[in-house]
Write a structure and sequence with these properties.
The protein has 493 residues and is an alpha+beta fold. The chain is built from eight helices and 26 strands. It starts with a strand and ends with a helix.
Protein backbone atom coordinates (compact mmCIF):
# COMPACT_ATOMS: atom_id res chain seq x y z
CA UNK A 1 0.00 0.00 0.00
CA UNK A 2 1.31 3.42 -1.00
CA UNK A 3 0.17 6.37 1.11
CA UNK A 4 0.70 9.99 0.14
CA UNK A 5 0.47 12.35 3.15
CA UNK A 6 1.34 15.87 4.13
CA UNK A 7 4.43 14.34 5.76
CA UNK A 8 5.64 12.67 2.59
CA UNK A 9 5.22 9.32 0.86
CA UNK A 10 4.89 6.10 2.91
CA UNK A 11 4.89 2.42 2.03
CA UNK A 12 3.05 -0.25 4.04
CA UNK A 13 4.09 -3.88 3.61
CA UNK A 14 3.96 -6.84 6.02
CA UNK A 15 2.66 -4.69 8.88
CA UNK A 16 5.63 -2.35 8.48
CA UNK A 17 5.61 1.32 7.46
CA UNK A 18 8.51 3.02 5.67
CA UNK A 19 8.69 6.81 5.21
CA UNK A 20 10.49 8.39 2.26
CA UNK A 21 12.14 11.71 2.99
CA UNK A 22 14.64 14.28 1.83
CA UNK A 23 17.57 11.93 2.29
CA UNK A 24 15.94 9.62 -0.31
CA UNK A 25 15.56 12.41 -2.87
CA UNK A 26 11.89 13.26 -2.11
CA UNK A 27 10.42 16.37 -0.47
CA UNK A 28 9.08 16.10 3.08
CA UNK A 29 5.51 16.95 1.91
CA UNK A 30 3.42 15.68 -1.01
CA UNK A 31 -0.13 16.05 -2.35
CA UNK A 32 -2.22 13.41 -4.12
CA UNK A 33 -0.71 10.72 -6.33
CA UNK A 34 -1.81 8.46 -9.20
CA UNK A 35 -0.79 4.90 -10.05
CA UNK A 36 -0.51 4.70 -13.85
CA UNK A 37 -0.67 0.90 -13.83
CA UNK A 38 2.67 0.73 -15.64
CA UNK A 39 4.95 0.55 -12.59
CA UNK A 40 5.09 4.23 -11.67
CA UNK A 41 3.52 6.57 -9.16
CA UNK A 42 2.70 10.14 -10.25
CA UNK A 43 2.55 12.74 -7.50
CA UNK A 44 2.71 16.49 -7.17
CA UNK A 45 5.26 18.00 -4.78
CA UNK A 46 4.77 21.73 -4.42
CA UNK A 47 4.88 23.20 -7.93
CA UNK A 48 6.17 20.07 -9.66
CA UNK A 49 4.79 16.75 -10.88
CA UNK A 50 7.13 13.80 -10.47
CA UNK A 51 7.07 10.27 -11.76
CA UNK A 52 8.48 7.75 -9.24
CA UNK A 53 9.43 4.21 -10.17
CA UNK A 54 7.88 1.75 -7.71
CA UNK A 55 10.85 -0.58 -8.29
CA UNK A 56 13.22 2.17 -7.14
CA UNK A 57 10.99 3.01 -4.16
CA UNK A 58 10.88 -0.66 -3.10
CA UNK A 59 14.66 -0.91 -3.52
CA UNK A 60 15.10 2.09 -1.20
CA UNK A 61 12.65 0.72 1.39
CA UNK A 62 14.38 -2.70 1.27
CA UNK A 63 17.83 -1.16 1.67
CA UNK A 64 19.08 -1.95 -1.85
CA UNK A 65 19.28 1.66 -3.01
CA UNK A 66 19.89 5.04 -1.40
CA UNK A 67 18.15 7.67 -3.54
CA UNK A 68 15.34 7.78 -6.10
CA UNK A 69 15.90 9.26 -9.56
CA UNK A 70 12.48 10.72 -10.53
CA UNK A 71 11.41 12.34 -13.78
CA UNK A 72 10.10 15.85 -13.08
CA UNK A 73 7.70 18.21 -14.86
CA UNK A 74 7.62 21.85 -13.79
CA UNK A 75 7.60 25.37 -15.19
CA UNK A 76 10.43 24.63 -17.58
CA UNK A 77 8.44 21.72 -19.03
CA UNK A 78 5.30 23.86 -19.62
CA UNK A 79 3.53 23.60 -16.27
CA UNK A 80 2.85 27.33 -16.06
CA UNK A 81 0.02 27.05 -13.50
CA UNK A 82 0.77 26.24 -9.89
CA UNK A 83 -0.81 23.40 -7.98
CA UNK A 84 -2.67 24.76 -4.93
CA UNK A 85 -1.96 23.50 -1.46
CA UNK A 86 -4.33 21.09 0.20
CA UNK A 87 -5.90 17.86 -0.95
CA UNK A 88 -5.77 17.49 -4.74
CA UNK A 89 -7.03 14.87 -7.12
CA UNK A 90 -5.41 13.17 -10.07
CA UNK A 91 -6.27 10.34 -12.41
CA UNK A 92 -4.76 7.99 -14.97
CA UNK A 93 -6.62 8.23 -18.31
CA UNK A 94 -7.11 5.45 -20.84
CA UNK A 95 -5.45 7.52 -23.57
CA UNK A 96 -2.03 7.19 -21.87
CA UNK A 97 -2.12 10.40 -19.87
CA UNK A 98 -2.33 11.39 -16.23
CA UNK A 99 -4.00 14.58 -15.08
CA UNK A 100 -3.89 16.82 -12.01
CA UNK A 101 -5.99 19.78 -11.02
CA UNK A 102 -4.27 23.17 -10.88
CA UNK A 103 -5.43 26.70 -10.07
CA UNK A 104 -5.77 27.33 -13.82
CA UNK A 105 -7.52 24.10 -14.83
CA UNK A 106 -6.39 20.54 -15.47
CA UNK A 107 -2.76 19.65 -16.36
CA UNK A 108 -2.23 16.61 -18.60
CA UNK A 109 1.06 14.68 -18.83
CA UNK A 110 1.92 11.92 -21.27
CA UNK A 111 2.74 8.65 -19.54
CA UNK A 112 5.18 7.73 -22.29
CA UNK A 113 8.62 9.37 -22.06
CA UNK A 114 9.26 12.33 -24.37
CA UNK A 115 12.24 12.24 -26.72
CA UNK A 116 15.57 11.89 -24.85
CA UNK A 117 17.65 15.04 -24.49
CA UNK A 118 20.84 14.03 -26.24
CA UNK A 119 22.59 17.38 -25.88
CA UNK A 120 25.07 17.26 -22.98
CA UNK A 121 25.04 20.30 -20.70
CA UNK A 122 27.97 22.64 -20.63
CA UNK A 123 29.36 23.40 -17.13
CA UNK A 124 30.51 26.96 -16.53
CA UNK A 125 32.10 28.74 -13.55
CA UNK A 126 30.13 31.87 -12.67
CA UNK A 127 32.21 33.50 -9.94
CA UNK A 128 34.52 32.81 -7.00
CA UNK A 129 34.36 34.10 -3.41
CA UNK A 130 37.69 34.28 -1.52
CA UNK A 131 37.56 34.96 2.23
CA UNK A 132 34.02 36.37 1.97
CA UNK A 133 34.78 38.71 -0.96
CA UNK A 134 33.92 38.14 -4.58
CA UNK A 135 36.97 37.57 -6.75
CA UNK A 136 37.46 39.96 -9.64
CA UNK A 137 37.70 37.80 -12.79
CA UNK A 138 39.13 40.72 -14.75
CA UNK A 139 42.33 40.38 -12.74
CA UNK A 140 42.99 36.91 -14.13
CA UNK A 141 43.12 35.48 -17.67
CA UNK A 142 40.86 32.47 -18.17
CA UNK A 143 42.26 28.96 -18.33
CA UNK A 144 43.90 26.44 -16.05
CA UNK A 145 47.31 27.89 -16.78
CA UNK A 146 46.34 31.13 -14.99
CA UNK A 147 45.46 30.14 -11.45
CA UNK A 148 43.69 32.00 -8.68
CA UNK A 149 46.33 32.81 -6.05
CA UNK A 150 45.25 32.62 -2.42
CA UNK A 151 47.30 34.60 0.14
CA UNK A 152 49.12 32.85 2.99
CA UNK A 153 47.11 31.91 6.05
CA UNK A 154 43.56 30.72 6.59
CA UNK A 155 41.63 30.77 3.30
CA UNK A 156 37.94 30.22 2.55
CA UNK A 157 37.10 29.49 -1.08
CA UNK A 158 33.66 29.19 -2.72
CA UNK A 159 33.26 28.37 -6.41
CA UNK A 160 29.79 29.07 -7.86
CA UNK A 161 28.79 27.39 -11.14
CA UNK A 162 25.93 26.52 -13.49
CA UNK A 163 25.11 24.08 -16.29
CA UNK A 164 23.81 25.23 -19.69
CA UNK A 165 20.87 23.06 -20.83
CA UNK A 166 17.91 24.34 -22.92
CA UNK A 167 15.66 21.33 -22.27
CA UNK A 168 15.46 21.06 -18.45
CA UNK A 169 18.10 23.24 -16.76
CA UNK A 170 16.56 22.75 -13.32
CA UNK A 171 17.21 19.03 -13.56
CA UNK A 172 20.91 19.37 -14.31
CA UNK A 173 23.02 17.74 -11.60
CA UNK A 174 26.64 18.49 -10.77
CA UNK A 175 29.74 16.78 -9.45
CA UNK A 176 33.14 18.29 -8.70
CA UNK A 177 36.56 17.41 -7.42
CA UNK A 178 39.66 19.31 -6.30
CA UNK A 179 42.71 17.56 -7.69
CA UNK A 180 45.57 17.78 -5.20
CA UNK A 181 43.12 17.60 -2.29
CA UNK A 182 40.67 14.79 -3.13
CA UNK A 183 40.67 12.92 -6.47
CA UNK A 184 37.11 11.53 -6.01
CA UNK A 185 34.08 13.19 -7.62
CA UNK A 186 31.58 14.61 -5.12
CA UNK A 187 27.90 15.32 -5.97
CA UNK A 188 26.57 18.76 -5.01
CA UNK A 189 23.28 17.56 -3.44
CA UNK A 190 21.35 20.25 -5.31
CA UNK A 191 23.71 23.16 -4.52
CA UNK A 192 25.37 25.14 -7.26
CA UNK A 193 28.56 25.96 -5.42
CA UNK A 194 31.52 24.13 -3.89
CA UNK A 195 33.00 25.31 -0.61
CA UNK A 196 36.51 24.73 0.74
CA UNK A 197 37.80 25.81 4.13
CA UNK A 198 41.46 26.37 5.02
CA UNK A 199 43.12 24.94 1.94
CA UNK A 200 46.63 23.71 2.82
CA UNK A 201 49.47 25.38 0.89
CA UNK A 202 49.86 23.82 -2.53
CA UNK A 203 48.68 23.74 -6.14
CA UNK A 204 45.18 22.48 -7.01
CA UNK A 205 42.91 22.05 -10.04
CA UNK A 206 39.13 22.34 -9.59
CA UNK A 207 37.01 20.36 -12.08
CA UNK A 208 33.22 20.57 -12.57
CA UNK A 209 31.03 18.08 -14.47
CA UNK A 210 27.30 18.48 -15.29
CA UNK A 211 24.68 15.83 -16.17
CA UNK A 212 21.27 16.51 -17.80
CA UNK A 213 17.90 14.97 -16.96
CA UNK A 214 18.56 12.10 -19.36
CA UNK A 215 21.79 11.14 -17.58
CA UNK A 216 24.06 12.54 -20.29
CA UNK A 217 27.23 14.08 -18.86
CA UNK A 218 29.26 17.02 -20.10
CA UNK A 219 31.96 16.33 -22.62
CA UNK A 220 34.66 18.36 -20.87
CA UNK A 221 34.75 19.50 -17.24
CA UNK A 222 35.08 23.17 -16.40
CA UNK A 223 38.51 23.74 -14.90
CA UNK A 224 40.01 26.26 -12.49
CA UNK A 225 43.58 26.28 -11.20
CA UNK A 226 44.14 27.37 -7.59
CA UNK A 227 47.41 28.13 -5.83
CA UNK A 228 47.40 28.50 -2.02
CA UNK A 229 50.55 30.26 -0.89
CA UNK A 230 52.43 29.01 2.15
CA UNK A 231 53.39 31.27 5.09
CA UNK A 232 56.96 32.45 4.90
CA UNK A 233 58.05 30.19 7.77
CA UNK A 234 56.92 27.07 5.90
CA UNK A 235 58.56 27.90 2.56
CA UNK A 236 61.53 25.92 1.31
CA UNK A 237 64.10 28.71 1.93
CA UNK A 238 62.75 29.24 5.45
CA UNK A 239 62.86 25.52 6.16
CA UNK A 240 66.38 25.33 4.75
CA UNK A 241 67.40 28.26 6.94
CA UNK A 242 65.78 26.62 9.98
CA UNK A 243 67.49 23.32 9.20
CA UNK A 244 70.80 25.14 8.83
CA UNK A 245 70.24 26.90 12.16
CA UNK A 246 69.36 23.61 13.85
CA UNK A 247 72.41 21.88 12.39
CA UNK A 248 74.55 24.82 13.39
CA UNK A 249 73.15 24.73 16.90
CA UNK A 250 73.70 20.99 17.15
CA UNK A 251 77.26 21.41 15.86
CA UNK A 252 77.87 24.19 18.36
CA UNK A 253 76.47 22.17 21.23
CA UNK A 254 78.47 19.15 20.10
CA UNK A 255 81.64 21.25 19.89
CA UNK A 256 81.02 22.75 23.32
CA UNK A 257 80.33 19.29 24.70
CA UNK A 258 83.57 17.93 23.23
CA UNK A 259 85.43 20.95 24.58
CA UNK A 260 83.90 20.44 28.01
CA UNK A 261 84.78 16.75 27.99
CA UNK A 262 88.36 17.55 26.98
CA UNK A 263 88.62 20.15 29.74
CA UNK A 264 87.08 17.70 32.19
CA UNK A 265 89.52 15.03 31.10
CA UNK A 266 92.44 17.45 31.44
CA UNK A 267 91.17 18.55 34.86
CA UNK A 268 90.89 14.96 36.01
CA UNK A 269 94.39 14.19 34.73
CA UNK A 270 95.72 17.27 36.49
CA UNK A 271 93.83 16.35 39.65
CA UNK A 272 95.11 12.78 39.50
CA UNK A 273 98.67 14.03 39.07
CA UNK A 274 98.30 16.47 41.96
CA UNK A 275 96.70 13.75 44.04
CA UNK A 276 99.67 11.49 43.33
CA UNK A 277 102.02 14.35 44.20
CA UNK A 278 100.09 14.98 47.38
CA UNK A 279 100.16 11.30 48.29
CA UNK A 280 103.88 11.21 47.63
CA UNK A 281 104.28 14.34 49.78
CA UNK A 282 102.25 12.69 52.53
CA UNK A 283 104.40 9.58 52.33
CA UNK A 284 107.55 11.73 52.57
CA UNK A 285 106.10 13.64 55.53
CA UNK A 286 105.13 10.41 57.29
CA UNK A 287 108.60 9.01 56.59
CA UNK A 288 110.21 12.14 58.09
CA UNK A 289 107.93 12.01 61.11
CA UNK A 290 108.67 8.34 61.63
CA UNK A 291 112.43 8.90 61.17
CA UNK A 292 112.90 12.25 62.90
CA UNK A 293 110.19 12.02 65.53
CA UNK A 294 109.06 8.52 66.44
CA UNK A 295 112.35 6.89 65.38
CA UNK A 296 114.42 9.40 67.35
CA UNK A 297 112.30 8.88 70.47
CA UNK A 298 112.61 5.12 70.22
CA UNK A 299 116.41 5.50 69.83
CA UNK A 300 116.49 7.65 72.96
CA UNK A 301 114.47 5.03 74.83
CA UNK A 302 116.90 2.36 73.69
CA UNK A 303 119.96 4.40 74.80
CA UNK A 304 118.38 5.32 78.11
CA UNK A 305 117.61 1.67 78.78
CA UNK A 306 121.24 0.71 77.96
CA UNK A 307 122.62 3.42 80.26
CA UNK A 308 120.20 2.37 82.96
CA UNK A 309 121.52 -1.16 82.75
CA UNK A 310 125.03 0.14 83.32
CA UNK A 311 124.14 2.57 86.13
CA UNK A 312 121.64 0.37 88.00
CA UNK A 313 124.02 -0.91 90.74
CA UNK A 314 125.72 2.45 91.34
CA UNK A 315 123.26 5.36 91.77
CA UNK A 316 119.48 4.88 92.48
CA UNK A 317 118.74 8.59 91.88
CA UNK A 318 120.28 8.44 88.44
CA UNK A 319 118.14 5.36 87.71
CA UNK A 320 115.00 7.25 88.71
CA UNK A 321 115.96 10.20 86.47
CA UNK A 322 116.55 7.99 83.49
CA UNK A 323 113.31 6.10 84.10
CA UNK A 324 111.49 9.43 84.01
CA UNK A 325 113.22 10.28 80.73
CA UNK A 326 112.20 6.88 79.34
CA UNK A 327 108.59 7.42 80.42
CA UNK A 328 108.42 10.92 78.94
CA UNK A 329 110.04 9.83 75.69
CA UNK A 330 107.73 6.82 75.49
CA UNK A 331 104.70 9.09 75.94
CA UNK A 332 106.00 11.38 73.20
CA UNK A 333 106.43 8.38 70.90
CA UNK A 334 102.90 7.22 71.72
CA UNK A 335 101.50 10.67 70.96
CA UNK A 336 103.34 10.84 67.65
CA UNK A 337 102.10 7.38 66.71
CA UNK A 338 98.52 8.47 67.53
CA UNK A 339 98.90 11.64 65.43
CA UNK A 340 100.19 9.65 62.47
CA UNK A 341 97.37 7.12 62.81
CA UNK A 342 94.81 9.93 63.16
CA UNK A 343 96.10 11.59 59.98
CA UNK A 344 95.69 8.31 58.14
CA UNK A 345 92.10 7.76 59.43
CA UNK A 346 90.49 9.37 62.47
CA UNK A 347 89.75 6.67 64.97
CA UNK A 348 86.62 8.51 66.17
CA UNK A 349 84.85 7.75 62.86
CA UNK A 350 84.73 4.05 63.65
CA UNK A 351 84.15 4.56 67.37
CA UNK A 352 81.57 7.36 67.68
CA UNK A 353 80.56 8.16 64.09
CA UNK A 354 80.97 11.12 61.72
CA UNK A 355 78.74 13.65 63.51
CA UNK A 356 80.39 13.20 66.91
CA UNK A 357 83.88 13.16 65.31
CA UNK A 358 83.36 16.54 63.62
CA UNK A 359 81.84 18.00 66.79
CA UNK A 360 84.79 16.73 68.87
CA UNK A 361 87.27 18.16 66.34
CA UNK A 362 85.59 21.60 66.50
CA UNK A 363 85.53 21.50 70.33
CA UNK A 364 89.25 20.66 70.51
CA UNK A 365 90.08 23.49 68.10
CA UNK A 366 87.92 25.99 70.01
CA UNK A 367 89.48 24.98 73.34
CA UNK A 368 93.02 25.50 72.05
CA UNK A 369 92.47 28.81 70.14
CA UNK A 370 91.20 32.34 70.85
CA UNK A 371 88.46 31.91 68.24
CA UNK A 372 85.03 31.07 69.60
CA UNK A 373 83.55 28.23 67.51
CA UNK A 374 79.88 27.31 67.36
CA UNK A 375 79.07 23.80 66.18
CA UNK A 376 75.63 22.51 65.21
CA UNK A 377 75.94 19.00 63.82
CA UNK A 378 72.89 17.00 62.70
CA UNK A 379 72.78 13.20 63.17
CA UNK A 380 73.98 12.21 59.70
CA UNK A 381 75.52 8.84 60.55
CA UNK A 382 74.51 6.16 58.08
CA UNK A 383 73.65 8.56 55.24
CA UNK A 384 77.13 8.38 53.68
CA UNK A 385 79.44 5.60 52.66
CA UNK A 386 82.58 5.04 54.75
CA UNK A 387 85.05 6.59 52.23
CA UNK A 388 82.73 9.59 51.90
CA UNK A 389 82.69 10.08 55.68
CA UNK A 390 86.50 10.38 55.70
CA UNK A 391 86.36 12.99 52.92
CA UNK A 392 83.65 14.99 54.73
CA UNK A 393 85.74 14.91 57.90
CA UNK A 394 88.86 16.08 56.01
CA UNK A 395 86.89 18.90 54.32
CA UNK A 396 85.58 20.09 57.70
CA UNK A 397 89.05 19.79 59.22
CA UNK A 398 90.64 21.75 56.34
CA UNK A 399 88.13 24.60 56.59
CA UNK A 400 88.46 24.80 60.39
CA UNK A 401 92.27 24.82 60.14
CA UNK A 402 92.10 27.64 57.56
CA UNK A 403 89.99 29.70 59.96
CA UNK A 404 92.38 28.93 62.81
CA UNK A 405 95.57 29.74 60.89
CA UNK A 406 94.63 32.56 58.52
CA UNK A 407 91.28 34.22 59.20
CA UNK A 408 92.00 36.38 62.24
CA UNK A 409 88.36 35.84 63.19
CA UNK A 410 86.71 36.21 66.57
CA UNK A 411 83.72 33.99 65.92
CA UNK A 412 83.22 31.04 63.59
CA UNK A 413 80.40 28.56 62.96
CA UNK A 414 80.33 25.00 61.66
CA UNK A 415 76.85 23.75 60.73
CA UNK A 416 76.22 20.29 59.26
CA UNK A 417 72.59 19.64 58.25
CA UNK A 418 70.68 16.79 56.66
CA UNK A 419 68.37 17.64 53.73
CA UNK A 420 66.28 14.47 53.25
CA UNK A 421 63.93 16.04 50.70
CA UNK A 422 66.95 16.77 48.47
CA UNK A 423 68.82 13.57 49.43
CA UNK A 424 71.85 15.69 50.35
CA UNK A 425 74.03 16.82 53.27
CA UNK A 426 74.87 20.52 53.63
CA UNK A 427 78.03 21.80 55.33
CA UNK A 428 78.21 25.52 56.13
CA UNK A 429 81.40 27.03 57.59
CA UNK A 430 81.73 30.81 58.06
CA UNK A 431 83.78 33.29 60.04
CA UNK A 432 83.97 37.05 60.68
CA UNK A 433 87.65 37.32 59.80
CA UNK A 434 89.67 39.26 57.24
CA UNK A 435 88.27 37.47 54.17
CA UNK A 436 89.92 37.46 50.74
CA UNK A 437 89.23 38.37 47.10
CA UNK A 438 87.66 35.27 45.54
CA UNK A 439 87.86 36.63 41.96
CA UNK A 440 91.54 37.45 42.15
CA UNK A 441 92.44 34.10 43.71
CA UNK A 442 89.94 31.70 42.13
CA UNK A 443 90.53 28.14 43.28
CA UNK A 444 93.52 28.91 45.58
CA UNK A 445 93.83 29.11 49.34
CA UNK A 446 94.69 32.78 49.89
CA UNK A 447 94.77 34.81 53.06
CA UNK A 448 96.21 38.32 53.09
CA UNK A 449 97.90 37.78 49.73
CA UNK A 450 99.52 34.48 50.62
CA UNK A 451 98.98 31.23 48.72
CA UNK A 452 99.25 27.92 50.50
CA UNK A 453 99.78 24.57 48.82
CA UNK A 454 96.73 22.47 47.95
CA UNK A 455 94.54 24.36 50.44
CA UNK A 456 91.18 25.30 48.94
CA UNK A 457 91.75 23.30 45.75
CA UNK A 458 92.01 20.29 48.03
CA UNK A 459 88.57 21.12 49.40
CA UNK A 460 87.10 21.52 45.92
CA UNK A 461 88.71 18.32 44.66
CA UNK A 462 87.36 16.33 47.58
CA UNK A 463 83.89 17.81 46.95
CA UNK A 464 84.19 16.86 43.28
CA UNK A 465 85.13 13.31 44.25
CA UNK A 466 81.84 13.19 46.21
CA UNK A 467 79.92 14.60 43.19
CA UNK A 468 78.90 17.58 45.27
CA UNK A 469 79.02 21.36 44.89
CA UNK A 470 81.06 23.96 46.73
CA UNK A 471 80.33 27.68 46.87
CA UNK A 472 82.45 30.27 48.68
CA UNK A 473 81.64 33.93 49.36
CA UNK A 474 84.28 36.27 50.68
CA UNK A 475 85.60 39.79 50.39
CA UNK A 476 88.34 41.76 52.07
CA UNK A 477 87.10 42.71 55.54
CA UNK A 478 83.82 40.77 55.42
CA UNK A 479 84.77 37.24 56.44
CA UNK A 480 84.37 33.99 54.51
CA UNK A 481 81.29 31.76 54.01
CA UNK A 482 81.42 28.24 52.61
CA UNK A 483 78.37 26.25 51.50
CA UNK A 484 79.03 22.64 50.46
CA UNK A 485 76.36 20.14 49.42
CA UNK A 486 77.09 16.45 49.11
CA UNK A 487 74.54 13.93 47.77
CA UNK A 488 73.80 11.04 50.07
CA UNK A 489 74.56 7.44 49.17
CA UNK A 490 70.93 6.91 48.00
CA UNK A 491 71.02 9.95 45.72
CA UNK A 492 74.35 8.99 44.17
CA UNK A 493 73.04 5.50 43.46
Amino acid sequence: MWICTFRGLWRHRNDTFFAFGINHGLPSRAGSFVDDGQGSLWAHFGTEIRRLSKDELNAIADGRKVRVDPRTWGRNEGLTASIPAGVQYGAALPNGQVCFGTDAGVAFVQIQDPPVNDVPPRPILEYVVVNGERYDWSQRPRGASHPIVLPPGYNSLEIHFAGLSFAAPSQVTYAYRMLGLNPAWEPTQGDRFASFRALPPGKYVFQLSATNEAGLGSLQPATLAVVALAPWWSTTPARALAATAVLGGVSLIYGLRIRYLKQLSATRRDYSQRLLDHQESERSRLARELHDGLGQDLLIIKNQAALLELDLPEDPNLVRSRLRDIAETSQSAINQARDIAHNLRPAELDRVGLASSIEAMVDRTSASSPIQFEARIAPIDGWLEKPAEVLIYRISQELVNNILKHSGAVHARVHLALLPEEAAIELRVDDDGHGFNTEAHQGLQVHHGRRAGLGLPSVRERVEMLRGSAHVESAIGSGTRWCIRIPTATNRA
